[in-house]
Amino acid sequence: MQDWTGPAARELQALERRLMAVFEQFSYEPLRLPMLESVALFKRGVGEATDIVEKEMFLIEPRHEEARDQLALRPEGTASTVRALQQQGLLFNQHQRVYYCGSMFRYERPQKGRYREFYQLGAEAFGYAGPDLDAELIALAAQCWRELGIDGQVRLQLNNIGSAADRRAFGGALVRYLESRAAELDADSQRRLSSNPLRILDSKHEATQSLLLEAPRLEEFVSAASQDRFAQLQELLGDLGIEHEVNERLVRGLDYYNDTVLEWVTDALGAQGTVCAGGRYDSLVEQLGGRATPGAGFAIGLERVLLLCQAQDGALGDAAVDAYLCVVGEAQRAPALALAQALREALPALKLRSHLGGGKLDKQLKRADASGAAIALILGPAEADAQQVQYKPLRGGSAQSLGLEALVQQLREDGYGQR
Questions:
Q1: What is the CA radius of gyration of the chain?
Q2: How far apart are CA 293 and CA 281, in angstroms?
Q3: Running along the chain, 419 residues long, what does each successive block of 10 average in pLDDT?
Q4: What angle do CA 375, 400, 363 make, to 5 degrees?
Q5: What's the predicted TM-score (pTM) here?
Q6: Distance between CA 101 and CA 79 in Å, rounded?
Q7: How far apart are CA 213 and CA 200, in angstroms?
Q8: The dihedral of CA 65, 50, 117, 15: what is its sign?
Protein backbone atom coordinates (compact mmCIF):
# COMPACT_ATOMS: atom_id res chain seq x y z
CA MET A 1 0.00 0.00 0.00
CA GLN A 2 1.17 3.54 -0.52
CA ASP A 3 0.81 7.05 0.83
CA TRP A 4 -0.33 9.88 -1.44
CA THR A 5 1.29 13.21 -0.58
CA GLY A 6 2.00 16.57 -2.18
CA PRO A 7 1.78 16.73 -5.99
CA ALA A 8 0.89 13.02 -6.27
CA ALA A 9 -2.15 13.47 -4.02
CA ARG A 10 -3.22 16.57 -5.96
CA GLU A 11 -2.92 14.70 -9.26
CA LEU A 12 -4.99 11.77 -8.02
CA GLN A 13 -7.65 14.14 -6.71
CA ALA A 14 -7.67 16.12 -9.95
CA LEU A 15 -8.04 12.88 -11.92
CA GLU A 16 -10.99 11.79 -9.79
CA ARG A 17 -12.68 15.16 -10.20
CA ARG A 18 -12.26 15.27 -13.97
CA LEU A 19 -13.55 11.75 -14.46
CA MET A 20 -16.46 12.19 -12.07
CA ALA A 21 -17.46 15.29 -14.03
CA VAL A 22 -17.75 13.09 -17.13
CA PHE A 23 -19.87 10.57 -15.20
CA GLU A 24 -22.13 13.45 -14.13
CA GLN A 25 -22.46 14.50 -17.79
CA PHE A 26 -23.97 11.09 -18.46
CA SER A 27 -26.36 11.57 -15.49
CA TYR A 28 -24.87 8.88 -13.27
CA GLU A 29 -25.64 9.37 -9.56
CA PRO A 30 -22.89 9.19 -6.88
CA LEU A 31 -22.89 6.22 -4.51
CA ARG A 32 -20.74 5.79 -1.38
CA LEU A 33 -20.03 2.25 -0.26
CA PRO A 34 -18.65 0.91 3.04
CA MET A 35 -15.08 -0.34 3.13
CA LEU A 36 -16.13 -3.61 4.83
CA GLU A 37 -18.52 -6.21 3.49
CA SER A 38 -19.51 -9.73 4.44
CA VAL A 39 -17.26 -12.39 2.90
CA ALA A 40 -20.44 -14.23 1.94
CA LEU A 41 -21.36 -11.37 -0.42
CA PHE A 42 -18.28 -11.97 -2.55
CA LYS A 43 -18.54 -15.77 -2.39
CA ARG A 44 -22.10 -15.56 -3.72
CA GLY A 45 -21.53 -12.73 -6.18
CA VAL A 46 -17.95 -12.89 -7.41
CA GLY A 47 -17.65 -16.69 -7.15
CA GLU A 48 -15.94 -19.07 -4.74
CA ALA A 49 -13.55 -20.40 -7.39
CA THR A 50 -12.25 -16.98 -8.43
CA ASP A 51 -8.77 -15.72 -7.53
CA ILE A 52 -10.35 -12.87 -5.56
CA VAL A 53 -12.18 -15.18 -3.16
CA GLU A 54 -9.61 -17.97 -3.07
CA LYS A 55 -6.46 -15.96 -2.38
CA GLU A 56 -6.78 -12.18 -2.74
CA MET A 57 -9.25 -10.93 -0.11
CA PHE A 58 -8.09 -9.30 3.14
CA LEU A 59 -10.18 -11.10 5.76
CA ILE A 60 -11.12 -9.71 9.17
CA GLU A 61 -11.75 -12.27 11.88
CA PRO A 62 -14.78 -11.58 14.12
CA ARG A 63 -13.73 -10.15 17.49
CA HIS A 64 -16.60 -11.77 19.36
CA GLU A 65 -17.80 -15.35 19.12
CA GLU A 66 -21.38 -14.22 18.61
CA ALA A 67 -20.43 -12.26 15.48
CA ARG A 68 -22.31 -13.88 12.62
CA ASP A 69 -20.32 -12.80 9.57
CA GLN A 70 -16.72 -12.86 8.66
CA LEU A 71 -15.82 -9.53 7.04
CA ALA A 72 -13.48 -8.55 4.23
CA LEU A 73 -12.04 -5.31 2.94
CA ARG A 74 -13.90 -4.85 -0.32
CA PRO A 75 -11.94 -6.27 -3.30
CA GLU A 76 -14.27 -4.82 -5.96
CA GLY A 77 -17.29 -2.55 -6.20
CA THR A 78 -20.00 -4.25 -8.26
CA ALA A 79 -21.23 -6.78 -5.70
CA SER A 80 -21.23 -4.04 -3.04
CA THR A 81 -23.25 -1.78 -5.34
CA VAL A 82 -25.88 -4.46 -5.91
CA ARG A 83 -26.06 -5.18 -2.18
CA ALA A 84 -26.47 -1.49 -1.33
CA LEU A 85 -29.14 -0.73 -3.92
CA GLN A 86 -31.02 -3.92 -3.09
CA GLN A 87 -31.05 -3.18 0.65
CA GLN A 88 -32.29 0.36 0.00
CA GLY A 89 -35.12 -0.89 -2.23
CA LEU A 90 -33.74 0.92 -5.28
CA LEU A 91 -33.79 -1.96 -7.77
CA PHE A 92 -37.40 -3.16 -7.62
CA ASN A 93 -39.06 -2.12 -10.91
CA GLN A 94 -36.60 0.76 -11.22
CA HIS A 95 -33.79 1.92 -13.46
CA GLN A 96 -30.57 3.06 -11.82
CA ARG A 97 -27.33 4.58 -13.08
CA VAL A 98 -24.74 5.08 -10.31
CA TYR A 99 -21.00 5.54 -9.86
CA TYR A 100 -18.62 5.02 -6.95
CA CYS A 101 -15.03 6.01 -6.25
CA GLY A 102 -12.66 4.74 -3.60
CA SER A 103 -10.21 2.17 -2.29
CA MET A 104 -10.33 -1.54 -3.09
CA PHE A 105 -8.07 -4.15 -1.52
CA ARG A 106 -6.51 -7.32 -2.93
CA TYR A 107 -3.64 -9.36 -1.62
CA GLU A 108 -1.45 -9.40 -4.74
CA ARG A 109 2.23 -9.03 -5.41
CA PRO A 110 2.82 -5.28 -5.78
CA GLN A 111 4.00 -4.07 -9.18
CA LYS A 112 4.10 -0.77 -11.00
CA GLY A 113 0.50 0.42 -11.20
CA ARG A 114 -0.76 -2.41 -8.96
CA TYR A 115 -0.92 -2.09 -5.18
CA ARG A 116 -2.72 -4.01 -2.46
CA GLU A 117 -4.80 -0.93 -1.83
CA PHE A 118 -5.83 0.57 -5.15
CA TYR A 119 -8.36 3.14 -6.32
CA GLN A 120 -11.25 2.53 -8.67
CA LEU A 121 -13.92 4.69 -10.24
CA GLY A 122 -16.81 2.53 -11.37
CA ALA A 123 -20.10 2.96 -13.22
CA GLU A 124 -23.01 0.53 -12.78
CA ALA A 125 -26.46 0.59 -14.42
CA PHE A 126 -29.52 -1.57 -13.75
CA GLY A 127 -32.84 -2.29 -15.44
CA TYR A 128 -31.63 -2.00 -19.04
CA ALA A 129 -31.52 -5.27 -21.00
CA GLY A 130 -30.58 -3.99 -24.45
CA PRO A 131 -27.17 -3.48 -26.05
CA ASP A 132 -27.74 0.28 -25.99
CA LEU A 133 -26.69 0.29 -22.31
CA ASP A 134 -23.44 -1.51 -23.16
CA ALA A 135 -22.84 1.05 -25.91
CA GLU A 136 -23.52 3.96 -23.54
CA LEU A 137 -21.10 2.61 -20.94
CA ILE A 138 -18.41 2.22 -23.59
CA ALA A 139 -19.13 5.76 -24.84
CA LEU A 140 -18.81 7.00 -21.25
CA ALA A 141 -15.37 5.41 -20.90
CA ALA A 142 -14.32 6.73 -24.31
CA GLN A 143 -15.32 10.26 -23.24
CA CYS A 144 -13.14 9.85 -20.13
CA TRP A 145 -10.10 9.07 -22.29
CA ARG A 146 -10.77 12.05 -24.53
CA GLU A 147 -11.14 14.33 -21.51
CA LEU A 148 -7.70 13.22 -20.28
CA GLY A 149 -6.05 13.28 -23.71
CA ILE A 150 -5.10 9.58 -23.56
CA ASP A 151 -7.59 8.26 -26.12
CA GLY A 152 -4.70 7.46 -28.45
CA GLN A 153 -3.04 5.34 -25.74
CA VAL A 154 -5.88 2.88 -25.06
CA ARG A 155 -7.86 0.48 -27.20
CA LEU A 156 -11.11 -1.37 -26.60
CA GLN A 157 -11.31 -5.16 -26.53
CA LEU A 158 -14.65 -6.98 -26.44
CA ASN A 159 -15.84 -10.56 -26.24
CA ASN A 160 -19.17 -12.35 -26.04
CA ILE A 161 -19.06 -15.05 -23.36
CA GLY A 162 -22.75 -16.00 -23.67
CA SER A 163 -24.94 -17.22 -20.85
CA ALA A 164 -23.99 -19.32 -17.83
CA ALA A 165 -25.43 -22.37 -19.62
CA ASP A 166 -23.35 -21.58 -22.72
CA ARG A 167 -20.21 -21.35 -20.61
CA ARG A 168 -20.94 -24.59 -18.76
CA ALA A 169 -21.24 -26.43 -22.07
CA PHE A 170 -18.05 -24.83 -23.35
CA GLY A 171 -16.24 -25.46 -20.06
CA GLY A 172 -17.05 -29.17 -20.25
CA ALA A 173 -15.69 -29.39 -23.77
CA LEU A 174 -12.57 -27.43 -22.81
CA VAL A 175 -11.88 -29.66 -19.81
CA ARG A 176 -12.28 -32.81 -21.92
CA TYR A 177 -9.79 -31.39 -24.43
CA LEU A 178 -7.21 -30.36 -21.81
CA GLU A 179 -7.43 -33.26 -19.37
CA SER A 180 -5.26 -35.55 -21.47
CA ARG A 181 -2.62 -32.79 -21.73
CA ALA A 182 -2.87 -31.42 -18.20
CA ALA A 183 0.81 -32.05 -17.50
CA GLU A 184 1.69 -29.48 -20.19
CA LEU A 185 -0.32 -26.73 -18.51
CA ASP A 186 1.21 -24.16 -16.15
CA ALA A 187 0.53 -24.67 -12.43
CA ASP A 188 -2.27 -22.08 -12.20
CA SER A 189 -4.05 -23.57 -15.21
CA GLN A 190 -3.78 -27.07 -13.75
CA ARG A 191 -5.51 -25.81 -10.63
CA ARG A 192 -8.18 -24.00 -12.64
CA LEU A 193 -8.91 -27.06 -14.77
CA SER A 194 -11.17 -28.40 -12.03
CA SER A 195 -12.40 -25.15 -10.48
CA ASN A 196 -12.60 -22.40 -13.15
CA PRO A 197 -11.52 -23.69 -16.58
CA LEU A 198 -12.49 -20.55 -18.50
CA ARG A 199 -9.74 -18.60 -16.72
CA ILE A 200 -7.22 -20.81 -18.52
CA LEU A 201 -8.05 -18.85 -21.66
CA ASP A 202 -6.30 -15.71 -20.39
CA SER A 203 -3.21 -17.50 -19.08
CA LYS A 204 -0.03 -15.56 -19.82
CA HIS A 205 2.06 -18.75 -20.28
CA GLU A 206 3.10 -19.35 -23.89
CA ALA A 207 2.96 -23.15 -23.58
CA THR A 208 -0.61 -22.99 -22.31
CA GLN A 209 -1.62 -20.59 -25.08
CA SER A 210 -0.10 -22.98 -27.63
CA LEU A 211 -2.27 -25.81 -26.28
CA LEU A 212 -5.35 -23.61 -26.64
CA LEU A 213 -4.82 -23.08 -30.36
CA GLU A 214 -6.57 -26.36 -31.12
CA ALA A 215 -9.04 -26.19 -28.22
CA PRO A 216 -12.81 -25.76 -28.63
CA ARG A 217 -13.80 -22.11 -29.06
CA LEU A 218 -16.28 -20.35 -26.80
CA GLU A 219 -18.10 -18.73 -29.70
CA GLU A 220 -19.11 -22.19 -30.95
CA PHE A 221 -21.24 -22.63 -27.80
CA VAL A 222 -22.82 -19.16 -27.55
CA SER A 223 -26.53 -19.02 -28.37
CA ALA A 224 -27.82 -17.35 -31.51
CA ALA A 225 -29.69 -14.75 -29.43
CA SER A 226 -26.49 -13.78 -27.62
CA GLN A 227 -24.57 -13.58 -30.89
CA ASP A 228 -27.27 -11.33 -32.38
CA ARG A 229 -27.10 -9.05 -29.33
CA PHE A 230 -23.33 -8.81 -29.65
CA ALA A 231 -23.66 -7.94 -33.34
CA GLN A 232 -26.11 -5.15 -32.45
CA LEU A 233 -23.63 -3.74 -29.93
CA GLN A 234 -20.84 -3.70 -32.49
CA GLU A 235 -23.12 -1.91 -34.94
CA LEU A 236 -23.95 0.73 -32.33
CA LEU A 237 -20.25 1.25 -31.62
CA GLY A 238 -19.64 1.68 -35.34
CA ASP A 239 -22.34 4.37 -35.45
CA LEU A 240 -20.58 6.11 -32.55
CA GLY A 241 -17.20 5.91 -34.27
CA ILE A 242 -15.71 3.84 -31.43
CA GLU A 243 -13.17 1.35 -32.70
CA HIS A 244 -12.82 -2.06 -31.04
CA GLU A 245 -11.32 -5.48 -31.49
CA VAL A 246 -12.85 -8.85 -30.56
CA ASN A 247 -10.56 -10.82 -28.24
CA GLU A 248 -11.79 -14.43 -28.01
CA ARG A 249 -9.52 -15.05 -25.00
CA LEU A 250 -11.15 -12.28 -22.94
CA VAL A 251 -13.34 -13.90 -20.26
CA ARG A 252 -12.82 -11.72 -17.12
CA GLY A 253 -12.04 -13.32 -13.79
CA LEU A 254 -15.41 -12.94 -12.06
CA ASP A 255 -18.25 -15.45 -12.28
CA TYR A 256 -21.11 -12.96 -12.54
CA TYR A 257 -20.49 -11.78 -16.12
CA ASN A 258 -22.57 -12.84 -19.13
CA ASP A 259 -22.70 -11.89 -22.80
CA THR A 260 -20.59 -8.73 -23.27
CA VAL A 261 -17.27 -8.37 -21.46
CA LEU A 262 -14.89 -5.50 -22.14
CA GLU A 263 -11.44 -4.20 -21.37
CA TRP A 264 -9.66 -0.99 -22.30
CA VAL A 265 -5.97 -1.89 -22.59
CA THR A 266 -2.71 -0.10 -23.27
CA ASP A 267 0.77 -1.13 -24.39
CA ALA A 268 2.40 1.70 -22.42
CA LEU A 269 2.38 0.11 -18.95
CA GLY A 270 4.05 -3.25 -19.47
CA ALA A 271 2.32 -6.23 -17.86
CA GLN A 272 -0.31 -4.05 -16.17
CA GLY A 273 -2.01 -3.21 -19.45
CA THR A 274 -5.69 -3.17 -18.41
CA VAL A 275 -6.87 0.31 -17.35
CA CYS A 276 -10.63 -0.30 -17.38
CA ALA A 277 -12.72 -3.48 -17.38
CA GLY A 278 -16.29 -4.64 -16.99
CA GLY A 279 -19.25 -6.12 -18.76
CA ARG A 280 -22.82 -7.29 -18.37
CA TYR A 281 -24.07 -9.18 -15.29
CA ASP A 282 -27.77 -9.90 -15.74
CA SER A 283 -28.00 -12.61 -13.06
CA LEU A 284 -26.07 -10.91 -10.24
CA VAL A 285 -29.01 -9.18 -8.54
CA GLU A 286 -30.91 -12.47 -8.43
CA GLN A 287 -27.83 -14.30 -7.13
CA LEU A 288 -27.71 -11.83 -4.24
CA GLY A 289 -31.35 -12.29 -3.28
CA GLY A 290 -33.19 -9.76 -5.45
CA ARG A 291 -35.54 -10.09 -8.38
CA ALA A 292 -33.96 -10.77 -11.75
CA THR A 293 -32.62 -7.40 -12.94
CA PRO A 294 -30.31 -6.82 -15.91
CA GLY A 295 -27.16 -4.85 -15.21
CA ALA A 296 -23.82 -3.81 -16.62
CA GLY A 297 -20.85 -1.70 -15.58
CA PHE A 298 -17.13 -1.11 -15.56
CA ALA A 299 -14.36 0.05 -13.24
CA ILE A 300 -11.37 2.27 -14.04
CA GLY A 301 -8.03 1.63 -12.33
CA LEU A 302 -7.03 5.15 -11.33
CA GLU A 303 -3.34 4.46 -10.65
CA ARG A 304 -2.86 3.05 -14.14
CA VAL A 305 -4.75 5.89 -15.79
CA LEU A 306 -2.66 8.35 -13.79
CA LEU A 307 0.53 6.73 -15.11
CA LEU A 308 -0.76 7.15 -18.66
CA CYS A 309 -1.59 10.82 -18.03
CA GLN A 310 1.85 11.47 -16.55
CA ALA A 311 3.45 9.94 -19.63
CA GLN A 312 1.65 12.61 -21.70
CA ASP A 313 3.89 15.28 -20.09
CA GLY A 314 0.90 17.14 -18.71
CA ALA A 315 0.32 17.76 -15.01
CA LEU A 316 -3.18 16.87 -13.90
CA GLY A 317 -3.11 18.71 -10.60
CA ASP A 318 -2.99 22.48 -10.39
CA ALA A 319 -0.45 24.25 -8.18
CA ALA A 320 -1.17 23.94 -4.47
CA VAL A 321 -0.82 27.72 -4.07
CA ASP A 322 -1.77 30.56 -6.41
CA ALA A 323 -0.93 33.50 -4.19
CA TYR A 324 1.13 33.82 -0.98
CA LEU A 325 0.23 36.57 1.47
CA CYS A 326 3.31 38.00 3.21
CA VAL A 327 2.59 39.72 6.54
CA VAL A 328 5.19 42.22 7.78
CA GLY A 329 4.90 43.37 11.39
CA GLU A 330 2.80 42.29 14.37
CA ALA A 331 0.22 45.02 13.76
CA GLN A 332 -0.68 43.50 10.37
CA ARG A 333 -1.68 40.05 11.67
CA ALA A 334 -5.37 40.80 12.15
CA PRO A 335 -5.73 42.92 8.96
CA ALA A 336 -3.99 40.13 7.01
CA LEU A 337 -6.49 37.52 8.24
CA ALA A 338 -9.35 39.86 7.28
CA LEU A 339 -7.78 40.47 3.85
CA ALA A 340 -7.38 36.74 3.23
CA GLN A 341 -11.02 36.12 4.14
CA ALA A 342 -12.20 38.92 1.84
CA LEU A 343 -10.18 37.53 -1.08
CA ARG A 344 -11.47 33.98 -0.56
CA GLU A 345 -15.05 35.23 -0.52
CA ALA A 346 -14.56 37.32 -3.66
CA LEU A 347 -12.54 34.68 -5.53
CA PRO A 348 -13.55 31.14 -4.46
CA ALA A 349 -11.18 29.59 -7.04
CA LEU A 350 -8.14 31.39 -5.60
CA LYS A 351 -5.79 29.16 -3.59
CA LEU A 352 -4.32 31.62 -1.10
CA ARG A 353 -1.75 30.76 1.55
CA SER A 354 -1.25 33.25 4.37
CA HIS A 355 2.15 33.46 6.02
CA LEU A 356 2.03 32.58 9.69
CA GLY A 357 4.59 33.10 12.44
CA GLY A 358 6.13 36.44 11.46
CA GLY A 359 9.67 36.90 10.18
CA LYS A 360 11.53 39.12 7.74
CA LEU A 361 10.07 39.86 4.31
CA ASP A 362 12.96 38.31 2.34
CA LYS A 363 12.47 34.97 4.12
CA GLN A 364 8.72 35.15 3.52
CA LEU A 365 9.33 35.77 -0.18
CA LYS A 366 11.59 32.72 -0.30
CA ARG A 367 8.79 30.66 1.21
CA ALA A 368 6.36 32.15 -1.28
CA ASP A 369 8.62 31.10 -4.14
CA ALA A 370 9.13 27.60 -2.68
CA SER A 371 5.36 27.12 -2.36
CA GLY A 372 4.96 27.36 -6.12
CA ALA A 373 2.82 30.48 -5.90
CA ALA A 374 2.77 32.75 -8.94
CA ILE A 375 2.06 35.88 -6.93
CA ALA A 376 3.17 37.36 -3.59
CA LEU A 377 0.79 39.75 -1.84
CA ILE A 378 2.62 41.94 0.69
CA LEU A 379 0.88 43.66 3.57
CA GLY A 380 3.28 45.78 5.64
CA PRO A 381 2.99 49.02 7.64
CA ALA A 382 3.22 51.25 4.54
CA GLU A 383 0.55 49.25 2.68
CA ALA A 384 -1.72 49.21 5.74
CA ASP A 385 -1.46 53.00 6.12
CA ALA A 386 -2.38 53.47 2.44
CA GLN A 387 -5.12 50.77 2.62
CA GLN A 388 -3.40 48.93 -0.19
CA VAL A 389 -1.61 45.63 -0.84
CA GLN A 390 1.56 45.17 -2.84
CA TYR A 391 0.96 42.78 -5.74
CA LYS A 392 4.27 41.15 -6.75
CA PRO A 393 4.50 38.54 -9.57
CA LEU A 394 7.12 35.92 -8.69
CA ARG A 395 7.74 34.65 -12.23
CA GLY A 396 8.37 37.94 -14.03
CA GLY A 397 6.34 41.16 -14.13
CA SER A 398 6.19 44.45 -12.27
CA ALA A 399 5.04 44.97 -8.69
CA GLN A 400 2.21 47.40 -8.03
CA SER A 401 0.21 48.62 -5.03
CA LEU A 402 -3.54 48.07 -5.26
CA GLY A 403 -6.63 48.67 -3.15
CA LEU A 404 -8.90 45.71 -2.40
CA GLU A 405 -11.26 46.21 -5.36
CA ALA A 406 -8.40 46.68 -7.82
CA LEU A 407 -6.59 43.67 -6.33
CA VAL A 408 -9.64 41.44 -6.79
CA GLN A 409 -10.00 42.66 -10.37
CA GLN A 410 -6.33 42.00 -11.11
CA LEU A 411 -6.51 38.48 -9.68
CA ARG A 412 -9.68 37.84 -11.68
CA GLU A 413 -7.90 38.96 -14.86
CA ASP A 414 -5.09 36.57 -13.95
CA GLY A 415 -7.59 33.73 -14.10
CA TYR A 416 -8.51 33.29 -10.44
CA GLY A 417 -12.21 34.00 -10.81
CA GLN A 418 -15.29 32.06 -9.77
CA ARG A 419 -15.27 28.27 -10.00
A1: 27
A2: 9
A3: 90 94 96 92 76 78 71 92 94 93 88 84 96 97 94 95 86 85 83 78 82 84 93 97 93 82 92 89 91 95 93 71 94 94 93 93 94 94 94 92 95 81
A4: 50
A5: 0.84
A6: 14
A7: 12
A8: negative
